[in-house]
Structures are given as C-alpha cells and as structure tokens.
C-alpha cells in the first residue's frame, strides 16, 4: 500500500553499515516477513534519539510536533502508545561472538524499525516529502552523534595514554631515586665493613703491644728489686753517720742556750727601765685626756642646750605662724560671710522687686483690659446708634417716596377723570404696569436695606477683628516683654552667680596659695631643723669616732700591760715594782670606767634628743593631716553648691516649659472655640488672667520652694558646720571665748540696767548708759554675725575641698588606668625577656656541651699522642701507628660532625634571640602592647584575602585598594596589633552588655545608649565632622557612661537574671574598648563600630590578623626608610592609576618587605656550604680511599649549591 522498496531501505541503512543481503535479518521488512500492514492500534517504538541508547530511540522527544506520539500518550486515532518489543517485528539480535559490533546492530535494528514505522505513517498521511527530510535530519544527527562518541572515546584513550606515560615516568624516576639510595646505603655498608676490619686489625695490634708491655714490665721489676737492696745497705751506713752528727749538735745547742739565757736577763733589765718611763708618760697623757674630755662634755652640753632652744623657738614660730594663718582665715571667713549675706539680701530684694514688678504688670494688663472693654462697649454703642440712624433714614425715604407716589396717583386720577373717555380702553394695562412698578420699587428698596445692613455688619466685624488683632498683638507684646524681662533677670542672676563663683574661686585660690606658702615655710623650717639635727648627728658621730680612738688606745695600752705582766711573771726579782705598776693600772682602769660612763650618759642624751625630734615630726604630720581634712571639707562644700546650682537650673527649665505649655494651650483653645469674636475675646482674656494667676502662683510656689530649700540647705550646712566645729578643738575654744564675751557683755548690760534703776541719775548719765547698752548690743550682734560668717566660710571651704577631692579622684582613676597599661607593657616585656633568657640558656647549655665535646676531643688526642709515643718507643718492629691514628681520627670526625650540628643549632638560636630583641626594640619605639611575629611565607590565597579585607573597609567592593582604604587599614591593623588583649576583653564585655539589655524588657543596645545620653544630658556634647557624610554627631562623656554601666543591673530585682552586674573595672575596660581614640567621649559611630567589631566572624578575624602582620612589616619598612603612607602607596601603584590591584599588591609586598622567606633547610644547606673547604681538607688528610670519598663529597656539595 504505497511503501518504499527494499532498495530504498538499503540506501537509507547504508550509512550505518548495516547489511541488506537477503539472508541477513536486517534485510527483512515487514512486507517480506508476512505483514502486509502494521498491526492496528500499534504506535512506533519509544526510544529517544538524543540519548543514543542501545534499546530504544524516541524521535518524538528529539523532534516534537512531527506526529510521533510519546510513550503513554494517546494518538489521534485514540490508541495509546506502547513500549518497543522485538517480537512485534521479529527482530532477533545476533548472539555470535564473531560479530564486531553487537551494540551497533541493536542500534541499527531500532533505527530500521523506526524507519519502517515512519514509512507506514508517510504512506498513510501521504506526506512523503516532509517526512523524508525529517528522516534525513534524524539520520544526520545520529551520524554526528556517532562521530562525537568516537571522538570522545579517542580523547579518553589519549588521556589514558598520557596518564600511563606520566605514571611510567614517575615510576622510573622513583626507581632511579631508590636505586641511588640503595647504592648509597650499599656504599655506607661497605665503608662500615672496611672500618670494622680496620678496627679488628687495630685490636690485634693492641693485644700484641700489651703482651710486649707485660714482658718489659717484668724485666723492669727485677731490675728495681736489685736497686732497692743496694739502696738499703747505703741507708744503714748513712744512719750511723747521722747519729754521731746529732750528738755533736746537742752539745753545741746546750752551749748556745746558756749564752741566750744571759742575753735574756740583760734584755729584761732594759725592758723594765723602758716600762717605767712609758708608765710615767701614760699617766701624763691620761691626765691631759681627762681635761680634754671634761672640756668637750661642757661644750657638748652647751650645744645641746642651744639645739633645745632653737627647737623651742622653731616650735613657737610654727605655732605663731599657724595662729596667724588661723586669724587670717577667720577674718577672710568673716568677710566672705558678710559678702554672702549682703548678696543674699540683694537677691531677696531683687526677688521682691521682681514680684512687685509682676504685680504692677498684672495691674497694667487689667487696666488695659478694662480700657479695651470700655472701648468695645463704646464701639458697640456707636454701631447700634449708626444702625438705628440708618433704619430711620430708610423709613423717611420710604415715606417720602410713598407720598410722592400718592400725589402722582392723585394727579393721574384727575387726568383720568378728565380724560376718562379717551383712556377707558387702557385702564387695565395701566393698572398692570403700576403693579409691576410697585413690585420693582419694593425689591430695590429691600435690596438697598439689605446692602446697608450688610455694610454695617461688615464694618462691625472688621472693627471687632481689628480690635481682636490689636488685643492679640498687645498680649503677645506683653508676654514677649515679660519673657524678655524674665530671661534678662535670669541671665543677670546667672551672671551674678557666675561672678560670685569666680570671686569665691579666686579667693579659694588665694587661700590655697597662702596655705601652700605657709606649708613651704613650714617645710623650709623643717628642712632647717633637719639640717641642724644632721649636724648634731654628725657631731655625735665625730665624738663617737673619738671615743672609738680612745678605746683603741686603751686596748693598745692594755696589750702593753699584758706584755709587761708577762715579763713580770718571768722576772721574779722586781716584785715591788710590779705591785706599783698594778696599782697604776687599777687607777687607769678606774679613770677609763668613769670616762665610759660619761660617754654613755652623752649617748643617752643624744637618744633623748632624737626622740624629741621624732615627736616634733609626728606633730608636723598631724598638722598636715588636719590641713588635708580642711581641704577635703572645702571640696565637699563646693560639690554641694554645684549640685544645688544644677537643681535650680533644672527647676527654671521646668518653669519655662510650663509657661510654654500654657501658651500653647491658649492658642489651641483659641483655634478650637468657634464662637463669636466678642466671646472669643472674653475667653482669651479670662484664660490670660487665669494663666497669669497660675503663673504667679507657680512663681510664688517656686520661690517659696527655693527659699525652703535654701533654708533647709542652710540648716543642714549649719548643722554640719556646728558638728564639724564641735569636732575640732580650736573652733570650740574660739566659740567658748565668744560666748564668754557675750555673757560678760550681757552681765555688764544687766549691771548697768540695775544701776540705772537703783540710782536716778542725770539725763547725761542716762544717755551714756543707753549708749553703752547699744554698743554692747551691737557688739553682741557683731559677734553673732561673725560666728555666722565663720560657719558660712567653713561651708564654702568644705565645698571647695570636695570639688578638689573629686578632681583628684578623677586624676587618680586616670593615673590608675595609665598604670595598668604600663604594667601590661612591662608584663609583656618581661615575658619576652623570659623567652630571650630561655633561648640564651639553651645557647649556654649547647655551648657547654660543645666545650665538653672539645675537652673530650683534646683528652682523646692527648691519649692518642701518648699511645703513639709509647708505641714509637717500645715497638720498633711495628713501624708507625698510622692505623690506630686513622681509627681515632674517624671517631674524631664523628665528634666533629656532632660539633657542627651543635654549632648550627647555636647559630639558629642566636638568630632567633636577635630577632626577638629587634622585635622588643621596635615595640618599645612604637609603644605597642603585643607584637605579632612575621610569618615564614604568604601564599597567593592569603594575599587575595588581605586585598579583599582592605577593599571592604569602605564598602565599595571594587576589587582594588584606594589610598583612603590603605590608610584606614593601617590604622585598624595598628589598633588590632596593639590592643589584642583589650579587644578580646571588650568583646566579652559587649556580650555581657547585650545579655543585660535582653534582661530588660524592650531594650536594645542602641536604645540603651540613647537612654544613657538622655539621662546624662549634661555630659553630652556635639563633635564636628564625625558622623556620616561629615555631619556633626552627639557623644557622651566616659564618666557618665561609666555610671550608666554600673546602674545597668538596677530595676531587674530577682527576675532570674544569671548575668553578674558590671564592676568598676569591667566598666572601665568596656569604655576603653568603646573609646579607641581616648578622647573621653563615645560617639554614636564609635558605639556602632564597637558592636560590629565585637561580632566579627572567624574568617574576618583571620584576615585582620594576616593584614596586621603585613601592615606591621610595612610600618617597620616605613620607619627604616623614613617614608609616609602616601609614599608607600605610590611605590606599590606601578601603573599610577590611584588604585592597587591584586598583582600590584603582591609584587609590592615582595619587593618592599620580602615576606617570601626561605626555610630552615636552606639555612642548613648554607651552613654546610660555608664549611665545604674545611671538610674537603679533612678528607685530603686520609690516605687510601680518601680520594673517592672526597669526590663523593664534592658531588654532594654541587647538588646542595644547585
């Protein structure tokens, strides 16, 4: 039914290599196999063309829309698709092993079946041309895929071949290396075997030598025995001769002893005579010394009395100076109290004047309001009169018009009557016209009346609006004037208070200067006293030295006496003279005892003077402590005054805020009420009056509160002053004196009154008594005022002392922080020094080991020389001992190798110590806290990470580094390197702060910072150019932030918070982390930056660490070359584009810093090459196989150098 012929099918299948012979299964078509038409309901196979599968090919997936149904989809005839089955078309694949392409056969079978189905569909649909093109494109695709698969297979095969060749090369290279190593090991084994053979030979030769030495030692022993017997006989002969000589010497000695006894007797006589003369001389010298000591004791007592007088005079002077200072300060206190009282009275007068002015202003306002009301009433009356006049005028005009109209009508009626006959036909028209005219006249009149009414109303409204505006302007002016006056008064009061404060501060400074001058005078007097005491101590020392000299002289005399006593014991003849000498000796000893007692008494007197000097010093210290306490009290009083001033300022601010709120309420009420103008004016007036009354009440209440507060403060101060005065004895004494004077004056006044009552005196006498009474009362009041002045001055001094104490405490905190920083630096330096000490200890231990090895080598060399000498002397048959020397030299070479290793290790340790010392010097020069050692190498990955880190500083991420980013990176890395410990501590404390913020409900970190700034508004300042885009930004002081951190835990109670509160040390550490530039203020940008740095991830921390290492090296390079950051940037920017890319950064670091360091193996190889000539000379000394070893060593050296 219109199918292709088998020749056409063979042409189509020929490109696939399929055979179309009659006997081949592929040549069978559905027609030839007994199928005239395909079975009904069957669809083509479902294999995909794009997958080149062995089972199925589905053209519908490769070419959709061409009439090929998908598997499982319904065709146009309603039949479903089915999977391909070989039984439908009787396709039996070949299973013979001789076939070269079973997979291609399967593919060809599938393709042929698909082609058959295509032909059947083409025959049915009669679209042969289009489907022919489709089959051709499918065929071309299949061919191209087949070619692609073959090309891929060829490529894979070539890859496998290249891998195999590379593996073979690696294997061959490894085998060659293994062969070389095996050869080297074999050579070493051969060398060891040869060395063992030589050692065996040496041992045999040594055994022979030992046998020879034994035989020679036996011969020597026999010879020595014979010599010993001969010497025995000679010794016996010598003993006999020596006995005779000894007897002769005995006799000569006895004769000499007799001669010596005679000489001793003569010498004893001479010594006795000398002793007598010396005893006379010593008695004379003792008498003179006694006189001298007596004179010196008198002078010493006089000097001691002088020193006592001087000390008493100095004490009196100091007491007088202190009393003068006390009187001076009391006078100053009185003056200050009087000035303060006068100023207080002035302030009260000013306040009452202000109150009177306010009342006057209120009266004026009321009068003005009354005037305005009268004017409004008059205006209203005038308006009403004008309206009534207009209404009367309108009525008169209407009446006149009506009268004229009636006249005209009357005339017209007469004319009608006259002309009744002529106008009878037009009467109705005329009447109608009249009606129209009447209506028009009425409308015009009504319009005019309405217009007049409207004009009057508009005039009234305009006048009322103008009046309201005038009232508003007047009210505004009055309020502005009042506000201006209040502001001026407040400014005047503030200026006066500032002037008073400045005046008080100046006075306090003067007082402090006077105190300092007094202290300096006391110190100078104390220094003079100390110098005098030192002079006195020197004189005592001089006297002690003289006493020691006398003691020495006495000891020498006692020694001479002992010698004389010995001589007296030897000589028994002069017993009487010896007794006299003993008596003289006892006298001398008694005199010496008296002299010692005198010296002891002098020493005790000196010690008493020292005790008195110590007491004087203690009194001086106590006086200084009292002065310090007074300064502290003055500081405390200053602080209280400042707190009161701040409280008053806050109250004034609150009053201003209330005033503004009242004004705003008035404006709102005016807008809200939509009544008429007069009602609005009345409401405004009433509100204004109420506001003024409320303001007056507020002012009066605030004044009363201020007065009450001042009274309470005055009471408290008076109580404090009284308690402090009671505590100090000097103030109580003065107060008692004043009270006694008051009592005396009162008694005198009473007496005078009694005298005036008893005796009726004359008028002059009465006047005199009255004057005396007035004077006494004036004196009493003056004394009372003086007491008040003293108390007030003491309060001011105490306030000043408190302020100074706070300043000193602040300075102490700052110094403590600086000391902590210095201690951290010192600890780090100590750690580095310990490391250096450990390294130096290792070097010393290695040097000791080296010295030990050298000593052993020397000992062994000496032993070898001794053995060589013995062998040369004893072994004439052996020849030379070169073999033994060769063995020892091998041992020596082994030891030398050990020595070389030790030297290399020492050199490495010395290099490391030098590097650590250089780091320590750089850190001391730079002031950083923790140095980071440079890395041995930096790879491209690390450099890329550093560039990315620097590029992200300005958030532009353009892959290049600008000069601004480079400068910021230098600053950040310097901070990260110098403050590593602070950074870790700050991160922990920020986490703690976050936990405390989370414990509070609805409180974030930024919210807490804003709350701290609002709570401590006085400590907030504006910093210029620190915000985003160079804008001004607010910053809070570190002291206020410290207080806010300490108060973080308040308000939580027992809610279950596990976080501990901030300690003062934690708060200061966190503030140091938040304030990196140490300007004592933390801005919003600094706070946000600290939060960001506290939450940095590990990758960014590692990048920052690497960047800090590189920037550390660049900083050292800049310091060595005296360069700026800009100069280094220009050197790294090779193309002068203003930006540094990755390649330029890598090349610049390698060129400037040189971070690609060599490893330790290179250093070892350099050390070995440095000793090349020495080692080759060692091998030249060895005979035999030394040449081969020398050649091998030269080859190794050439490898190392390459």
UniProtKB/TrEMBL annotation:
This is EF-hand domain-containing protein. It holds the Pfam family EF-hand_1. Residues 1-10 have a biased composition (Basic and acidic residues). Residues 1-79, 920-939 are annotated as: Disordered. Keywords: Calcium, Coiled coil. GO terms for molecular function: calcium ion binding. Residues 941-976, 1062-1097, 1120-1155 form the EF-hand domain. Gene3D superfamilies: 1.10.287.1490, EF-hand. Residues 189-223, 358-385, 438-574, 606-658 form a coiled coil.
């Amino acid at each position: 039914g219109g199918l292709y012929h088998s020749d056409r099918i063979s042409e189509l299948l020929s490109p696939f290599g399929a055979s179309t012979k009659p006997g081949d299964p592929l040549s069978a078509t559905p027609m030839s196999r007994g199928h005239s038409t395909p079975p009904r309901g069957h669809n083509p196979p479902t294999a995909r063309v794009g997958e080149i599968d062995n089972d199925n090919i589905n053209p519908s997936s490769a070419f959709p829309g061409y009439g090929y149904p998908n598997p499982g989809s319904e065709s146009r005839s309603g039949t479903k698709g089915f999977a391909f089955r070989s039984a439908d078309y009787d396709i039996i694949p070949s299973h013979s092993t001789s076939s070269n392409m079973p997979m291609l056969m399967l593919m060809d079978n599938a393709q042929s079946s698909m082609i058959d189905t295509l032909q059947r569909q083409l025959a049915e649909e009669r679209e042969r041309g289009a489907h022919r093109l489709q089959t051709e494109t499918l065929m071309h695709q299949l061919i191209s895929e087949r070619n692609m698969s073959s090309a891929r297979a060829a490529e894979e095969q070539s890859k496998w071949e290249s891998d195999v060749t590379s593996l073979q090369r690696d294997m061959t290279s490894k085998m060659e290396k293994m062969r070389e190593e095996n050869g080297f090991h074999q050579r070493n084994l051969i060398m060891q075997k040869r060395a063992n053979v030589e050692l065996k030979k040496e041992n045999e030769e040594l055994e022979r030598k030992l046998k020879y030495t034994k035989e020679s030692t036996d011969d020597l022993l026999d010879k020595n025995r014979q010599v010993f017997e001969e010497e025995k006989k000679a010794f016996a002969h010598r003993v006999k001769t020596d006995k005779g000589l000894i007897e002769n010497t005995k006799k000569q000695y006895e004769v000499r002893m007799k001669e010596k006894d005679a000489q001793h007797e003569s010498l004893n006589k001479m010594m006795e005579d000398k002793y007598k003369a010396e005893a006379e001389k010593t008695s004379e010298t003792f008498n003179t010394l006694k006189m001298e000591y007596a004179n010196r004791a008198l002078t010493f007592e006089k000097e001691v009395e002088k020193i006592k007088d001087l000390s008493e005079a100095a004490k009196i002077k100091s007491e007088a100076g202190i009393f003068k200072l006390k009187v001076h300060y009391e006078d100053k206190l009185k003056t200050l109290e009087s000035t303060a009282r006068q100023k207080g009275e002035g302030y009260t007068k000013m306040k009452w004047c202000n109150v009177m002015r306010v009342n006057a202003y209120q009266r004026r306002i009321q009068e003005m309001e009354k005037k305005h009301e009268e004017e409004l009433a008059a205006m209203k009356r005038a308006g009403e009169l004008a309206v009534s006049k207009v209404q009367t005028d309108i009525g008169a005009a209407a009446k006149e018009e009506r009268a004229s109209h009636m006249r005209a009508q009357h005339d017209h009626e007469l004319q009608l009557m006259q002309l009744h006959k002529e106008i009878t036909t037009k009467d109705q028209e005329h009447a109608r016209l009249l009606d129209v005219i009447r209506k028009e006249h009425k409308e015009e009149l009504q319009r005019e009346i309405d217009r007049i009414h409207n004009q009057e109303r508009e005039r009234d409204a305009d006048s009322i609006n103008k009046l309201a505006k005038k009232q508003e302007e007047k009210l505004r002016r009055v309020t502005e004037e009042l506000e201006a006056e209040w502001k001026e008064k407040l400014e005047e009061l503030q200026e006066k208070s500032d002037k008073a404060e400045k005046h008080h501060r100046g006075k306090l400074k003067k007082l402090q200067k006077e105190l300092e001058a007094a202290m300096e005078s006391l110190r100078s007097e104390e220094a003079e006293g100390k110098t005098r005491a030192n002079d006195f101590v020197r004189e005592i020392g001089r006297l002690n030295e003289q006493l020691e000299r006398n003691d020495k002289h006495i000891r020498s005399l006692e020694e001479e006496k002992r010698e004389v006593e010995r001589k007296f014991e030897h000589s028994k003849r002069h017993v009487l003279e010896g007794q006299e000498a003993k008596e003289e000796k006892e006298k001398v000893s008694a005199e010496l005892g008296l002299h010692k007692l005198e010296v002891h008494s002098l020493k005790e007197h000196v010690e008493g003077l020292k005790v008195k000097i110590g007491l004087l010093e203690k009194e001086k210290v106590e006086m200084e402590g009292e002065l310090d306490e007074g300064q502290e009290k003055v500081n405390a009083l200053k602080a209280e005054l400042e707190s009161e001033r701040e409280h008053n300022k806050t109250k004034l601010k609150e009053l201003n805020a209330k005033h503004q709120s009242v004004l705003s309420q008035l404006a709102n009420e005016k807008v809200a009420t939509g009544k008429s103008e007069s009602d609005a004016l009345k409401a405004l007036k009433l509100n204004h009056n109420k506001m003024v009354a409320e303001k007056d009440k507020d002012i009066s209440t605030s004044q009363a509160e201020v007065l009450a507060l001042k009274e309470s403060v005055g009471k408290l101060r008076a109580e404090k002053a009284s308690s402090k005065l009671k505590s100090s004895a000097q103030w109580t004494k003065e107060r008692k004196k004043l009270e006694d004077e008051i009592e005396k004056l009162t008694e005198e006044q009473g007496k005078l009154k009694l005298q005036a009552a008893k005796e009726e005196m004359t008028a002059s006498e009465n006047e005199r008594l009255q004057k005396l009474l007035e004077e006494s009362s004036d004196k009493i009041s003056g004394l009372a005022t003086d007491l008040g002045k003293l108390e007030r001055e003491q309060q001011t001094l105490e306030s000043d002392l408190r302020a100074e104490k706070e300043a000193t405490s602040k300075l102490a905190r700052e110094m403590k922080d600086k000391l902590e920083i210095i201690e951290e630096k010192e600890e780090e330096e100590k750690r580095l020094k310990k490391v250096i000490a450990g390294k130096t200890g290792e070097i010393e231990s290695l040097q000791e080991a080296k010295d030990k090895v050298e000593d052993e080598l020397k000992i062994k060399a000496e032993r070898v020389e001794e053995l060589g000498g013995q062998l040369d002397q004893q072994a004439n048959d052996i020849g030379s001992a070169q073999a033994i020397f060769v063995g020892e030299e091998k041992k020596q070479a082994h030891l030398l190798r050990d020595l070389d290793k030790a030297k290399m290790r020492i050199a490495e340790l010395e290099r490391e110590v030098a590097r650590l010392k250089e780091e320590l010097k750089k850190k001391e020069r730079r002031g950083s806290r923790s140095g980071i050692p440079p890395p041995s190498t930096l790879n491209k990955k690390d450099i890329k990470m550093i560039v990315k880190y620097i590029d992200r500083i300005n958030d532009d991420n353009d892959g290049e580094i600008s000069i601004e980013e480079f400068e910021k990176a230098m600053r950040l890395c310097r901070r990260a390197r110098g403050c590593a410990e602070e950074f870790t501590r700050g991160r922990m404390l920020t986490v703690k702060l976050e936990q405390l913020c989370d414990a509070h409900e609805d409180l974030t970190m930024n919210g807490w910072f804003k709350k701290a700034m609002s709570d401590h508004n006085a400590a907030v300042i504006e910093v210029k150019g620190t915000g985003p885009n160079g804008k001004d930004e607010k910053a809070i002081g570190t002291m206020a932030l410290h207080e806010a951190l300490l108060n973080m835990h308040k308000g939580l109670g027992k809610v279950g918070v596990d976080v501990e509160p901030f300690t003062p040390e934690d708060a200061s550490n966190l503030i140091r982390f938040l304030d990196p530039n140490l300007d004592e203020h933390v801005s919003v940008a600094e706070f946000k930056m600290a939060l960001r740095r506290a939450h940095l991830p590990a990758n960014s921390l590692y990048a920052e660490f690497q960047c800090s290492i590189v920037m550390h090296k660049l900083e050292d390079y800049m310091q060595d070359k005296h360069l700026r950051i800009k100069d280094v940037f220009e050197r790294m920017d090779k193309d002068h584009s203003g930006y540094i890319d990755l390649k330029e950064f890598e090349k610049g670091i390698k060129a400037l810093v040189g971070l690609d360091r060599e490893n330790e193996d290179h250093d070892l190889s350099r050390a070995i090459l440095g000793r090349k000539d020495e080692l080759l000379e060692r091998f030249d000394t060895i005979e035999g196989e030394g040449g081969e070893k020398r050649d091998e060593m030269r080859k190794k050296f050439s490898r190392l150098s390459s």
